[in-house]
User: Fold this.
Amino acid sequence: MVNAPFAFSYQALPMRVVMGVRALDRLADEIDRAGLKRVMVLCSPGQRELAETVAGLAGARVADIHPHARVHVPAASAAAARRRAQEVNADGCLAVGGGSAIGLGKIVALRHGLPVIAVPTTYAGSEMTPVWGLTENGVKRTGRDPRVLPVSVLYDPALTVSLPAGVSATSGMNAIAHAVEALYAPDASPIIDLMAEEGVRALAGALPDVVADGAGLDARSRAQYGAWLCGACLGATTMSLHHKLCHALGGALDLPHAPTHAVVLPHALAYNQGAAPKAVAALGRALGASGDPAAHLWDLAGRLGAPRSLRELGMAQDDIDRIVAITLANPYANPRPVTADGLGRLLHAAWSGRPPAR
Ligand code: NAD
Assistant:
């Protein structure tokens, strides 16, 4: 059923996606298509072997492998990657890994204009966004620039079979969070609504199978398809309370990125549900659970074995007030007004691991 009237603005991003089992066979063609001759491969230290395998498929088009990506792109690691790109005369980057490797590629793209080709191996979604991040003196700055959007993204589920069950679960919840907030974003649009609903449906359906059998390519494919859609939602809309809270928790307390998203999401959604009926309806359809999708996501996190309290991520209860203050310091769009009281209650529930408030 179509709900008129429509009122929205929508800017499509120039993204190119190659998805499927053996998508990586197309890597050399994609590099050639982008006109690149000497790419620098970027990855996290733990993913060097995987990056070497991928680099092998690109042959002489690889100028170097730089296995020094760090979470939240510290300024020193960004500077080292930029120096290395100049030393080896790279004309582009091939980022193999999660948001850390792709985030490093984005900074090289921002400062030197080198295009990025991304081969994502988590579900975080950075490859689908023009958003860059850089951490300096303990403060993470972010910005939007079309130059950092990868020119080509290859999603091959075979690269995700080594992602441990725990990381798969939290990374998948991180992706679902993008779609949830896109559904009530101030710049939501009908096409993004469709992508968000389908992305949540695909991921919520796939993740229990991924956690049960990480080697199953069918479930890995469905999860990656969902992650692509959810990442595209993140790239196209403005995020609200959930992402601001996670940003504050990660920045001020150094809590781990994806697990923090997994814990906070049901609580942030519960906070907003009463003010976002269209999002609740879409999530109800996607999750096969009408009425209270926040409770459903909390149950899902439990079934996936994902953390459900900030306490278990290392946060001290005394830090709640500080996070409330940081989250309130800069205003942002949110379907329900964000108050100190409301935030405090939300964070106490998320900290202790209680189910989200109804
Ligand atoms: P990550 O890239 O740090 O990866 C998490 C861990 O998983 C790492 O230790 C990595 O080595 C490991 N890993 C990755 N792929 C693997 C595989 N296939 N098998 C085994 N281990 C694997 O974490 P992430 O959650 O993907 O990304 C988080 C970062 O990305 C944060 O800095 C976040 O802010 C950023 N991010 C940015 C955007 C954006 O739009 N700019 C979007 C989402 C996330």
In short: Residues 16-160 form a domain with the Rossmann fold fold (CATH 3.40.50.1970).
